[in-house]
Design brief:
Length: 325
């Protein structure tokens, strides 16, 4: 695979293979020196044209754990502010000799355009409302770990589906892995058409909550709303929020996910996040590293992953400054 642009580019076998690779990288992360030289000599640029906390830092850690060189590029501190176009900017970065560019952009389709402009591997780290494929992979990874498999499992994705790249990517990943997906939310927060997806819809969370293996709560994307689509946060919480009372109706072995950042007291109550072992939010953050290692290795690694070249638990030898003529 040269790029990772959308989940739809991967079939079930490819998704499962990436999750299996992530498992192997998760083992590397438990070692006393949690680092392998798999991407030594390779350069990864993190090109974030929109804000991010978790995604950016976990790509950064993932690339460093694979011994890649990492360049961090922030739109805020760049010549984009002096009027340079996106194309000029990425071509300039590319001219420095890079192997992969991890792109986040507020416009849907930006990573696809960049993949046409430069000859580096492009990994989509979130584009507009469209896709966030590594989020879907890490969500699938966590659900597979907690539930054993997604096959036949009933997962509800609750809230602002219309503006959510996470929802679009998760729907594709979860259904490809065999799950039954129900979208739950008010009509104003559902996309106008659901036709490409094999999903069910419910407008009453209480009607489905007792049947779920997992509940995936989405953030209300206030920054993407031109006008309010819900009457108030309080009303949203009353109908769709995971309150302590609703959490009691979830199965004892159900999984509670949220991609972060969370609006506590809206999508989920603080009481639930603080006290309920079924909440997998920190597992999701932790899974970001091995999953993104698997993705980066897949797009720019050489051949098969050999996890022992640095001698297992032996420290990775320090880089030398030797120049080969
Ligand atoms: N962090 C996720 C994203 O970048 C989800 C969110 O912002 O609500 O799409």
């Amino acid at each position: 695979m040269k790029h990772l642009l959308t989940i739809g580019d991967l079939d079930r076998g490819e998704l499962e293979e990436l999750l299996d690779h992530a498992d192997r990288f998760a083992e590397v992360l438990t070692r006393s020196v949690p680092k392998v030289p798999a991407l030594r000599g390779r350069t990864v640029v993190l090109a974030f044209f929109e804000d991010s906390t978790r995604t950016r830092s976990s790509f950064d850690v993932a690339a460093r754990r694979l011994s890649a060189d990492v360049i961090n590029f922030s739109a805020g501190a760049s010549s984009l502010n002096k009027g340079e176009s996106l194309r000029d900017t990425v071509e300039t970065i590319h001219a420095m000799g890079i192997d992969a560019m991890v792109v986040r952009h507020r416009s849907s389709g930006a990573p696809h355009r960049i993949a046409e402009w430069i000859d580096a591997s492009i990994v989509n780290a979130g584009d507009g409302w469209h896709q966030h494929p590594t989020q879907a992979l890490l969500d699938s990874y966590v659900l597979r770990k907690r539930l054993g498999s997604l096959d036949g499992r009933h997962i509800a994705i609750v809230g602002d589906i219309a503006h959510s790249r996470v929802a679009r990517s998760d729907i594709e990943a979860f259904t490809a892995l065999g799950a039954r997906v129900t979208l739950v939310g008010p009509t104003t927060l559902l996309p106008p058409t659901l036709s490409p997806w094999n999903v069910e819809v419910a407008h009453d969370l209480d009607a489905v909550i007792g049947d779920l293996d997992a509940i995936y709560l989405l953030r209300i994307q206030n920054e993407r709303l031109a006008e309010p689509l819900i009457p108030s946060n309080r009303e949203y919480r009353d109908r769709f929020g995971l309150t302590a009372a609703r959490a009691r109706r979830l199965r004892a072995d159900a999984v509670i996910c949220h991609p972060g950042p969370m609006n506590l007291g809206v999508e989920i109550d603080r009481e639930v996040t603080a006290n309920d072992d079924r909440v997998a939010v920190l597992d999701q953050v932790a899974a970001g590293v091995p999953v993104r290692m698997a993705v980066l290795f897949n797009v720019i690694g050489h051949g098969r992953f050999d996890d022992t070249p640095s001698g297992g638990d032996e420290p990775v030898p320090a880089e030398t400054n030797e120049v080969h003529s």
